[in-house]
Amino acid sequence: MERLKLVFLCALLAVARRGAFVDAVIVDGLQVGFYSRTCPEAENVVRDVVNSEAAMDRSIPPGLIRLFFHDCFITGCDASILLDESPAGDVPEKESSANGFTLIGLNTIDTAKSTLESMCPRQVSCADILAFAARDAAVAAGLPTYDVAAGRRDGVRSNMDDLPGNFPVPGHHVPRLTELFAQRGLSQEDLVALSGAHSIGGAHCFMFANRIYGFSPGTGADVDPSMDPDLAARLRQACPRPTPNDDPERARKGKLDNSYYTELLARRGLLTSDNALVEDPQTRAVVEAFARDDALWQRKFAEAMQKVGALDVILGEGRGQVRTQCRLVNRQGPQQQPQQGPQSQRPQPMFPWLPHHRFPQRRPRRPFPRHPLADMINGFFRGFH
Fold first, then answer.
1. Nuclease: is it a keyword of this entry (predicted)?
2. 100 lies in a domain?
3. Which listed residue, of 1, 51, 183, 200, carries a Cα 20 to 30 Å from 214's Cα?
4. Does 162 appear as a known binding residue?
5. Is 33 annotated as a binding residue?
């Protein structure tokens, strides 16, 4: 009997260990055309805003795709990356060193949200707006359109401490990247397909300086020998030896296609994590397949984006909320306040014999109201500039 108990305990531990490896799950329950009744123009509005912003600023499409990925990969697609502050007092995700000043597209989401709030108040979540915007950004950059299922609710927490150790960084190699993606239910093929988004946008010099300066002091190699020498020379010219105050950016082209993979095979990968995809034999085979067939990569990229968009989503009334401003959690109204028993009423003052008006209650901060007209005027001057 004791032996049987031991075998059963070992089996339980094995199952627990295997289950603990997957930190995120792809949730079913989202629907294509979710807003067809409550806000029929929702997707059209987001698409128009993204196209308008992308026409003025070529950094918008890659910025929105990156914003979507960074949001979903950590705590799921809950728009937590958009929050300026957390009700719990935590430092929000966007302040993390993995995000910080490199986040682009936040104002685009704000514009889409304020427009939709004027048309369909409290209907379209910020998490869905971000998912629509990422798809529309990819289309604006040259990808065929694809369906985006909706119905996500917005989260009410954001904490920068969730990122360290749980997010891919430019210095990671394939084993670590594969492990992180597997923990989110994503395959190695998804990893390679999503990396193709690096064909557009830009990279700050500090992200690849380790490959063009002081690569291997022990052997005397200043530049990564796996990098094309001509590319290394151009990068060193664009990005002088780094100093604490310098942070120029190397821009890439604006078309989203499979040229990223042909560049990798030509030894012109920029980041360590890019170059790692051709050095690993398993991922190199996928790189070669995508380099040969642009249509194949486009299909796999769209499928991977759909999988990312379903990571740990919040579904259903009573869970999460639909924010009225994407940067702030909604203030609780009287109907949302938890019921209080007779013992949890307003606390008694410390000095009951003193008049209460001498110690007024501190009022919570009220967010500055936004208006669609103000966003339109701001967009005009931005375009003029």
1. no
2. yes
3. 200
4. no
5. no
